[in-house]
Design brief:
five-stranded mixed β-sheet, 16% strand, binds dinuclear copper ion
Length: 378
C-alpha cells in the first residue's frame, strides 16, 4: 500500500500555536528594525547614498531577524516534540519524509525570490557608488601614507594636508590610492569605504548632505601607527592623534574660502614629478636592504619566480640573468640601468601598469638597493 506521505506526517499538536507565536515575535523584530534608532550605533548619515545604505541595512536586519526566529523556533519546537522517548528502541529512527513537491516548490521559490530581491536592492546602491557618472562631479583624490591621509584638488597645486573639505550638496568623485602599503579610507558618517592600494586607483561617488565634521578612519592594518589613523580616538594625554583627520562638509561659501586658501598657500608648489632622466646612481646599492624593500614594496605584485609566474606583474627571479628574456618588458636590454629606469618612471604597456617611483614612494637610494638585490637573483 502506498501511503500519502504529505498527510501521513504529523507536525505535532502544538505546531500552529508555535507558528502563531513565532509570527508575532517576527513582527515585533521587523517593526523594531524598521524604527530602530541607528544613530545609537552609527553616526547620523551625512551623505547620499548613505540613507539608502541604512535602508538596506534595516531591510536585511528585519528579514534576517524574522528568518532567525522561524528557523530557530521550529528547530527548538521539533527537537522537543519529536525527541526520543524512553519506550523507543535503541535503533529507532524518526519519520522519513521525501517527495513532498508542494513543500519543495515553496522552499525553493521563496529563498530564491528573496536572494534576487536582495541582489537588486544591493546592486542599485553599488551602481551609484561605483559606476554612475554624476554631472558636475568634483573630482578629488586621497592618498594613504604611513600614517596619515593627503588630498589633491583640481585647482590646487601639490597636496592638501590635514583636513579634507567638501562643499555640501555637490556630487563628489573620490579617487583613492596609497603611496606605501594598503590602507582603507572609511567615513562612517557617509557609510562609505574604499581600499587604498599602491598602484591601483579605487573610486567612490557620493554627495555630502549635511554640514559638519566627520572622522576619516583607516580600516586596513597598515603598520605600527595604524590605530593613529583614526580621528575619534584621542592620543596620549587626550590630544588628537598625529594622524587624526577629519572630513569637513562646508557651506559652498566656506568651502570656497578654504579652497582659495590652499590655492594661495600652494601657489608655488610644483606639480611636476621629479625629473626622470635615468640619473639614479646605482653604485653602493645594498642588496640586503633591497631584499627587505622588495618584500615590502614589490612582493604584492611580483613573485620571486621565473618571468611567466605572474601575480600582477611578471616574476622577477633572474630578471637580469634570464637568457630566455634578454629584454625587459619595455623592450630595452635587461641591464641594471634599464631596470632602474623602469623603477623610476614606471611602466605602462602590454604587461599592465606599474606606478612610478614617486607613487611607489621609492627614493633613488631605494632604487639602487632594489637593483642590487635583483642582480643577485639568478
Ligand atoms: Cu592606514 Cu591602517
Amino acid at each position: 500500500m502506498v501511503e500519502n506521505r504529505a498527510t501521513a506526517v504529523s507536525l505535532g499538536r502544538g505546531f500552529w500555536s508555535v507558528t502563531a507565536v513565532l509570527a508575532v515575535l517576527s513582527v515585533i523584530g521587523i517593526v523594531y528594525w524598521l524604527v530602530a534608532p541607528l544613530g545609537t550605533v552609527m553616526p547620523i548619515v551625512a551623505a547620499e547614498p548613505g540613507a539608502q545604505v541604512d535602508a538596506l541595512l534595516r531591510f536585511m536586519a528585519a528579514s534576517g531577524t524574522a528568518l532567525f526566529i522561524f528557523v530557530g523556533g521550529y528547530l527548538l519546537y521539533f527537537s522537543i516534540t519529536f525527541r526520543a522517548k524512553a519506550s523507543d528502541g535503541p535503533d529507532a529512527v524518526g519519520v522519513q519524509i521525501h517527495d513532498n513537491h508542494v513543500l519543495e516548490f515553496w522552499w525553493t521559490l521563496i529563498p530564491t525570490l528573496f536572494v534576487v530581491l536582495l541582489s537588486i536592492l544591493s546592486v542599485r546602491i553599488w551602481y551609484e557608488i561605483q559606476v554612475a557618472q554624476p554631472p558636475n562631479g568634483l573630482v578629488v583624490e586621497s592618498l594613504g601614507h604611513q600614517w596619515y591621509f593627503t588630498f589633491r584638488y583640481p585647482q590646487v597645486n601639490g597636496e592638501v594636508t590635514g583636513e579634507m573639505h567638501l562643499p555640501i550638496n555637490q556630487p563628489v568623485v573620490l579617487n583613492v590610492t596609497s603611496s606605501d602599503v594598503i590602507h582603507s579610507f572609511w567615513i562612517p558618517a557617509f557609510r562609505l569605504k574604499a581600499d587604498m592600494v599602491p598602484g591601483l586607483i579605487n573610486t567612490i561617488r557620493f554627495t555630502p548632505t549635511r554640514v559638519g565634521r566627520y572622522p576619516i578612519i583607516c580600516t586596513e592594518f597598515c603598520g605600527t601607527d595604524h590605530g593613529m589613523m583614526n580621528a575619534t580616538v584621542p592620543g596620549e594625554g587626550g590630544k588628537p592623534n598625529a594622524g587624526a583627520q577629519w572630513l569637513v562638509v562646508d557651506s559652498p561659501a566656506d568651502f570656497q574660502k578654504w579652497y582659495h586658501g590652499w590655492q594661495v598657500k600652494n601657489a608655488n608648489v610644483s606639480n611636476a614629478l621629479p625629473t626622470t632622466t635615468g640619473t639614479v646612481n646605482l653604485t653602493g646599492g645594498d642588496a640586503s636592504a633591497g631584499q627587505a624593500l622588495f618584500a615590502q614594496k614589490c612582493s604584492a605584485c611580483h613573485a620571486l619566480a621565473p618571468f611567466a609566474t605572474r601575480i600582477v606583474g611578471p616574476g622577477l627571479k633572474g630578471v637580469l640573468h634570464d637568457p630566455t628574456h634578454p629584454n625587459l618588458v619595455d623592450g630595452d636590454p635587461a641591464t641594471p640601468a634599464n631596470v632602474a629606469d623602469i623603477l623610476e618612471k614606471g611602466y605602462t604597456g602590454d604587461m599592465g601598469h606599474m606606478p612610478d617611483a614617486t607613487q611607489n614612494g621609492l627614493s633613488s637610494k631605494d632604487i639602487a638597493n632594489l637593483v642590487a638585490y635583483l642582480n643577485t637573483l639568478k
